[in-house]
Amino acid sequence: MDIKILVFLEQRNGEIKKQSLEAARKGYKLSKELNTEVVALVIGNELKNLDILSEHGVEKVVHFKNEKLKNYSSTAYSKIISDFAKENNFNLLLFSHTSMGKDLAPIVAAKLKAGYGPDCTFVEFKDGQLVLERPIYAGKAIMNFFLNSEVRVITIRPNTVSLTEDGFNVKTTVDLKEMNDQELDLRSVAIDYVKSEGKLDVAEADIIISGGRGMKGPENFYLLEEIAQLLGGAVGASRAVVDAGWRPHSEQVGQTGKTVSPKLYIACGISGAIQHLAGMSSAKCIVAINKDKDAPIFQVADYGIVGDVLEILPALKDELKKYLS
Amino acid sequence: MKIVVALSHVPDTATKIKISQDRKTIDPAGVSFIINPYDEFAIEEALRTKEKFGGEVIIITYGNDSAKESIRKALAMGADKGILIKGELNIDSLSVAEALASEISVLQPDIIFCGKQSVDYDSSAVGQMLAELLNYSVISTVVKLEIENGKVKAEREVEGGIEIVESTTPVVITAQKGLNEPRYASLKGIMAAKSKPIEEKTFEIKSNKLVVNDLRLPDSRRKSKIVGTDASAVPELVKLLREEAKVI
What we know:
heterodimer; A: 30% strand; B: Rossmann fold
């Protein structure tokens, strides 16, 4: 059967999320290789930045619009997507593996009786077969697999598709579909979103600087915050410091926290428990700063400094300032 | 109120993963299994819900005989009874959700709790799929929950903040760390759990849609270059990040 690709674009406050652009690019690339159709789908009310889509290979976007769809509703969104996919015979659905994507995609997969491949780091057609890869056990192993079903639903791990590569400039047309209230299944609906102090989330950051017990106490984390701000990154934490109450759980990196794939991961005063290493070992570049030269973190690091983080971090901040100014 | 907790029995997070000879599964030798860490928050929330509204808490899991250990632990924490749907380890979320739904649909609970993901396959999918199969709504990754007059209001963790969601019941709630502090089983609870019933059921999984080609360990080759032993190494480190790694 011919492949028809549908990409779900996620919006919050009317802005298309960066992670969705990765899914859009992946969809465009696959459609070119297979010489097939790709359509993007967005659900929301007023949308502010649809113009950016033309840089990311979105030729056709269908916008399902209603005031009540402004905020996320898993019941309404999943019905719209699966109905649209069914009516138009889309059989490869791409989402980003974000909070919304990983909530929504499995519901859509169940509605469509589709095979589900979550959190994929590799999505390619090889000899007519869609080959997928994803980390399991928080990254302790990589699974290579395929979906043996007519319809396939896939979520793509954020930060695994380049948004700067050229060749995705297209003309975008928008197909607006106004929805009536009675068409919406609003059993579950988000009524509010509370942003946490305007900080970047570790799951979304290109650069993460994380602290562990070697930071000595919560009062020293400002050192990491300053550097995170300089680099436009986020602050992460080890499980030990989250359990000690030094940092919120939303910052925890590792098997019972977040699994991250940033461009640069700087581990400060983190010895590297197996659960932590699993959560960050897919970072492109890893720097470790720790006073124990035998700490396991050095074995997964590209660069290391053996020394006291509290002495090294101020120097790192000054040096970065010099370089970035 | 009828409350169900869907539980997963998983390798301890301290486990070093080894791949089996067939390259499709992990080598179970020397691996100890535990209650999926996120499911502990689910059990605790279920028990608190029962303490507030009355009713019963039923633990259900899909797995082999050894999963009874985890069910027994949940019973020791205070759950009333357990159901084990016997089957082999399965990586296909929809197959597992269908197996669970086959029994839960008979129970017709008002609320189903599960962990936001199991720490083996990390799919974060079974709760949502279960909801869809049972025609329930679902709120995932919940860190705060209020139940009132047949409605729930939950805070769920999303990128950079908290999303507040309202839903009707019946509903599936998937628990994130932070929802509560799971209790320890008391000695009395452990003794009581021994006489609590665990029903055994079967469910035939027709065919998995997810097919594993192979598993491998991640490529962990790294430069492991020690740049220095004090703050004087910092300029060299920044230079390497800029010129060699090209990441800043």
